[in-house]
Request: fold
Amino acid sequence: MNSTLTKSFQILAGVAFIVSIYFFLNESWIGLGWTATGFFACLGISFQGNPKLKGFTYSTMIFAAVSMAMAFPSWFTEIRGYKLSNTITPLIQVIMFGMGTSMSIRDFAGVIRTPQSVLIGVLAQFCIMPLLGLGLATLSGLEPEIAAGLVLIGSSPSGLASNVMSYLAKANLALSITLTSVTTMLAPLMTPLLMKFLAGALVEIDVLKMMWDIFKMIIIPIGAGLLFNKLLSGRSKWLDQAMPIVSMVGIGLIIVVITAAGRDALLEIGFLLIVLVTIHNFSGYFIGYWFARVFKMPEKDCRTVALEVGMQNAGLASGIAKEMGKIATIGLASAVFGPVMNISGSILASFWSKKEIQEK
Reply:
């Protein structure tokens, strides 16, 4: 994008921002919805002309879509009697299939090569964030089902975004891929047990049902993706190129549907939930990093563990909330967590990419 076009969209974003303030002060929520959407959309497009900000385009567009969902929730809850929340589980399965097509048995070889690093990373993943989620849920004063969403996002495995951020942060990409793969495959066992143990007092948890729900959302599509990759390796380059885009669109749709379904609750506790989710996310990075440091892991590995711990699979958490029939309550934390972690992860990765690694 040339500089003239970039500046034009920056000007449009500025105008939309000023007008949105006017609508906010006058409590014109429909006008605010349109102008806020325009602001984020123009801002995201303008980022394409700046190499340093280009990575934030996706998150900015998510905010644009969320603004529209907040202003016109009926557009994203039902179409001709069909509830759009029913698309969440199939979208998760498509995303997990895409993950499977990009994986191979080699991704699990790290368990054999560096078992100690993998063990430390998995331990950090399933200890730090669930306990942080429980602590924040307890202190928040939120409605029990909404508070349980903080525990759910903490009990979920790491997401694919952590692999991208590990690459940008000059971390140990091989370890990142291994940890994402291992924690994802352990999710059908670990996530229900953690939810039962930590959030059982907040919301009723059917452990066996949740295990099956996660199994069909993760293991089956990933297994199909692995088989597809094995049988058609190198023959489907179009799929390799399309799946990242499909995954990003799918995650965006999930966030929008959840936002629309829980719009009324978000209007009441939205700011508090954003603060809690941000604390959860940032604490995951910080504690994850120093947890690895305690075990004297190399700097690259410490960065990897920090990103794996701090960046959760928000899409899976949303799918679990949907299968529980509580998308408008338990699912809210994961809807907020997704955009927050993408922005914070990009900033942290950018910071680390400029910081030289000096190992003793």
The beta strands are 78-79, 82-83. The longest strand covers residues 78-79. DSSP finds 15 helices and two strands in the chain. Residues 1-71 form one domain.
